[in-house]
Amino acid sequence: MAKEITLGFILIVVFVVSISQSRLVNGAPQVPCFFIFGDSLADSGNNNNLRSFAKANYQPYGIDFPIGLTGRFCNGRTTIDILAQLLGFENPVPSFAATSGPDILKGLNYASGSAGIRAETGFQLGARISLDQQLQNHQVTVSRIASTLGNNQSALQHLNKCLYSVGMGSNDYINNYFLPQFYDTSSIYNPEQYATLLIDQYSRQIKSLYKNGARKVALIGLGKIGCTPNAISTFGANGSACVNNMNSAVQLFNQKLLALVNQLNTNLTDARFIYVNSFGMASGDPAAAGFKVVNVGCCPVNNFGQCAAGQTPCQNRSEYVFWDGFHPTEALNKITATRTYTEFDPSDTYPLDISHLVQLSL
C-alpha cells in the first residue's frame, strides 16, 4: 500500500510538470474571461487598503512572486494564478480593487482574506469583503461591461463564456464556528445544522451569480483545515496528525456542496457547475511529492497565524506544504491547480474537470 501511495505522488509530480509545460505555451486563453470569488487562498490584493489584520502586503509575502509584494497570502503564485496560466492567460487575473477600464472584460478577482459566506465571519480581524459584497462588486462590473459593450444583452453573451471560480466557507469555520470567544454559532448549531445553514445561504448566492450570466462555475470544496499549522498549535491534535473535529465539520459541508452541484446541474440546464475536491487532493503521502515539512509553516508567524513582518522564511520552500499558519506554498498550489485543471484521480473533480468545463458549448 505504501508503495502504491508513493508511486501515485511521484506520478502526480510528473503529471504537474507535463501539464504545465504543455499548457503554458498555448496561444489564446481558452475562455475570454475568468472571474474569481473567494477568501485569502485566492486574494490577490483586495485587502491591501482595508483596515484589517488579514492582509499580506508586507515581506516576506511574495518572496517568490515575479513582481514581489501584491497582497497574496503566499510565497508565490496562488492556485488561481496557476489555473489562469493553465487556461492560457498571459497575466494573473487582476484584483477588483485595482482595476478599471477595458481590462475588466478579461475577468477580475474579488477574493478577500478572512471573508466568508456569512457576513459576520472574520469580523475580529477587521474589514473584509464578504461573499455578498463580492457579488455586489461583480454587479458593478457587469454594469461596466454592459456600458463598454453597448447593452446588457452583449454583456450577458460575453459573461456566459467566462469561467467562474467560487471558493468560500473555510473562514466560516476557522474565523467563526471554531472561535467561540467571538461567535456563538457553535453553541446554536451542531456541525450538521451549521453546514446546512451555510449551504442554504451559499446556494442563494451562487444562483445570484447565475442570474448575472455565470454559466461555467467551479465550486471549490473546503480543504483539511484541521491540518493547518495554526489549527494544530491552537487546538492540539490529541495524538492525531490533525484536529479531527475540524476536518469532520468541513466534510459535512463538502458533502452538501457536492449535492448542491447535482441540484444546480439538474435545475439550471443551460449552465454547468463542477465540484473541486480539495479535501481529497490533500490525502496521501506528501513526502512522495517532495514535501518534508507538513505541520509547520515556512515563515515565522505572528499572533494571527500569518507571517511575522520582516522575518526570514525558510530557504527550502518547495519542501514545505504550508507557507504560514494557514496558507499553502506555491509548491503545493502547483499540484492543486494542475489536478483541478486536469483531474489526476477520478475523485479530484465532479462531474468533470476545468479543462473539459471550459470546452463545453452551453
Structure, described:
- By secondary structure, the chain is an alpha/beta fold.
- It contains twelve helices and five strands.
- The protein has a five-stranded mixed beta sheet with strand order 1-2-3-4-5, with helices on one face.
- Helix 2 crosses helix 11, helix 3 packs across helix 4 and helix 7 runs parallel beside helix 9.
- The N terminus is likely disordered.
In short:
The protein is an alpha/beta fold.
Biggest sheet strand line-up? 1-2-3-4-5
Q: Uncertain spans, ≥5 residues at pLDDT below 50?
A: 1-11, 20-26
Q: What can be said about the biggest beta sheet?
A: 5 strands, mixed
Shape: globular
Count of domain modules: 1
Which percent band covers the strand fraction? 5-15%
Q: Count of helices? A: 12
CATH topology: Rossmann fold
Work out the radius of gyration.
19 Å
Share in helix: 25-40%
CATH class category name: Alpha Beta
Classify the secondary structure makeup into a structural class. Answer: alpha/beta
Number of β-strand runs = 5
